[in-house]
User: Fold these one by one.
Assistant:
Number 1:
Amino acid sequence: MTDTMHQIRLADRVSALKPSVTVAVTNRAKELRRQGADVLGFAAGEPDFDTPDRIKQTAIRALEAGQTKYMPTLGDPETRGVIAQKLASENGIDGLTPEHIAIGAGGKHVLFTVCHCLFDKPAPDGAAAEAVLPVPAWVSYDPIIRLAGGTVVPVETTADSDFLMTPEQLASAITPKTRAVFLNSPSNPCGTMYSPEQIRALAAVIAEKASIAPDVVVVSDEIYEKIVYGGIDHLSIGAVPEIADRVVTLNGLSKAFAMTGWRVGYAACPGDFGKRIIKAMGTLQGQMTTNITSFVYPAIRTALTECADDVDRMRRTFGERAEMITKLLAGMEGLSCPKPTGAFYAFPDVSAHFAKTTPGGRRLDDALSFCEALLDEAEVALVPGDDFGGCGKRHVRISFACSEEQIEAGMGRLGNWLASLR
Ligand code: PMP
Ligand code: GLU
């Protein structure tokens, strides 16, 4: 080190990047627990179940058999073929071959790659490709779209309409500059989902607006498709024939198969555009990460073809927990929230408590100060809704991917703490 040493600069791209609040709160809760605090965490968007054993055994066998070398960048044709078959038989998405499928290191990585294949840097006149994003939305969409050069056009939804974007809202958000419309049903953080009729109505708008926005693509994040328990069927927008060739369906194994740490995500898009975008993703991924861990591919096939009973067991448990948390929240003063029908999140409005003072003497100004005070004073970790966008600043996210005992205890603490606010 010399006296002339100054702070060496980092790229603006990362200096300006917001850390993921879901990851940050989860890590903070874990750290407090490690230090001995009795924190009850409701922040992690990750199933508390272990990965089903037959998936693990397949990976162990592949490892023992020496499947430890580089593989084709986007995955071996056999595994890509199994994903294509799954999307045809379960989701009604036709015309997919292995060339229409990309496998990457988790849904987040695949989303990142898709966005880099859709958006360019703004043109010299400042005009940027637009991404229509219904908000509140998962915290990573906005930064990933921006990093890729896109401009986010938020469409504000509210709890009164189950946080769903209407066809009219979508129609007025699409312009000649629109490159992509993002959908996430069932939704993180809202816990609500579109009915098949609502999906068809949105698809009809896209089909009509393609005349003014010829390059528009739908990115449909269906990572929670199997965690549905509210009586609404999941429909993949990629199964609607009029727009199927402009839909990139995004999914992954993290949530349905309790495989968050394995890092498996995939994208699919049929037709000629599908082949071109998947090839582009392969080129990009080939300069980034190459293939995912080799001995995981057989485990993907096991998960997608042999584990329906495990998935259903977890789905039913999430449904029971959704019932439980809905009842517990309904008994608390000043909280309101649509009943979750999919994923494992409740997203109550807590703004009735803003401007109150906590037992520890803190003033609650927003969702962030609400969550900070709750963690410090009642040792309950929730995610503040601010970074999900739109009305999220009045909401907090409660992940119920944890035991019934923890839900009972944590909601008890939350209720008592709310009752003590003045
Ligand atoms: N999409 C949504 C809506 C999510 O909540 C998550 C959770 N991390 C992901 C994508 C990505 O998950 P993963 O990278 O673990 O596949
Ligand atoms: N998607 C999960 C969540 O929202 C995991 C963390 C993350 O990647 O954001 O909590």
Number 2:
Amino acid sequence: MENKKFMPEPFRIKMVEYMSILDKESRKEAIKKAGYNTFLVRSDECYIDLLTDSGTNAMSDRQWAGLMLGDEAYAGSRNFYHLEQVVREYFGFKYIVPTHQGRGAENILSSLLIKPGDYVPGNMYFTTTRFHQERNGATFRDIIIDEAHDPSIDLPFKGNVDLNKLQALIDEVGAERIPYICLAVTVNLAGGQPVSMANIRAVSELAHKHGIKVMYDATRCVENAYFIKEREEGYQDKTIKEIVHEMFSYGDGCTMSGKKDCLTNIGGFLCMNDHDLYVRATGMVVQFEGMPSYGGLAGRDMEAMAIGITESVQYEYISHRVNQIRYLGEKLEAAGVPMVKPYGGHAIFIDARAFLDHLTQDEFPAQALSAALYEFSGVRTMERGIISAGRDVVTGKNHYPKLETIRLTIPRRVYTYAHLDFVADAVIELYKRRRDISGLKWKYEPKVLRFFTGTFETINPELIKGF
Ligand code: PLI
């Protein structure tokens, strides 16, 4: 029985949180009031909330118990030393600087390593990560394999770096203008796609040959390790902990959003092996986050993060997590819903361009689909397409990403297979009515990270005709 394809949740429920179920008219009003931006819908107006897996994790009884062990001293909290010990043991980096969340670490790393005119290559952009790189004067260069931009290509390691692209950049601008490579494991915007250990090793070799640092975006590193165990020759008998440790052994440091794979609701950190960089990072953290022994976090949050890391590498936890995504993906695929393949580690990405093939990219198909799914069912998702991609900082023109998707992001340990059945039914029903969905146009376009707070109007009189 323990070999069933979809084993039930590997936890039982000790505390419950009731969800809101709004009627159709209230949902229509809510999404209109939010300017057709699901980021601006109130949490109480959502039924199943798949906006993000960031900070939405359910903590375990052990983590809640850990909160009571919070040492809220301004300096030298014992929870910091616990976190430091766990990160050293599991990630293998020498130094750790806690931050309030991932972008706090990105801010410090980018400010310390980038000079104006530099280039930062990465395996696809992430919104906040690229923002900090550009804010410090760097140009981001996408060096992911071409296949990652095609939703239909099914490859085991679609997050891999194209080494020729990396070499070409080094030849073009010179290694001295590339302070580091940002290597994301997994790649969020490619659909949660993993990087193979062989590719990590090869990137590290090439980068280090030219004196370029390898800094991981470790946000979803446990999910990456799970895919390596499942898909890469030679790793089947290794533990997730061993694989995570090996992945990081090839690099120089990382930024981490603890709100994802550390199984907490807040927190992050920056790691490095270089002592000088660590000293400079502590100089920055005191300016922007707090003492190097808390970095914007309460002691209890650091404790929860330390415990969360140890739980995240448990096989029962991570295999269930990835299988939940797969379960939802298989249901949608059976109904012909177009999706990014293969299914990633944290979310299903629906191909909004194919779903709403009557709209052009300038009519914001992903934004419209995300709004329509909310209106139709109360399920909240996130646009990951032209709105998230923003404008070129130099020309001011829109980026036109090949991937125009909505992300159905599964929070960790929060929803059950029964919830996913509801989500699948909602998407499949909406797919039958896809031609009724209107495109959108801007009402207010913010200058920075516009997807968070931008608002829209429908092009047709109704978002979903006749609904
Ligand atoms: O949200 P932060 O500041 O803790 O982390 C920023 C961040 C960095 N890298 C990656 C790959 C992320 O996915 C990420 C945040 N992601 C969010 C908020 C998400 O919804 O995917």
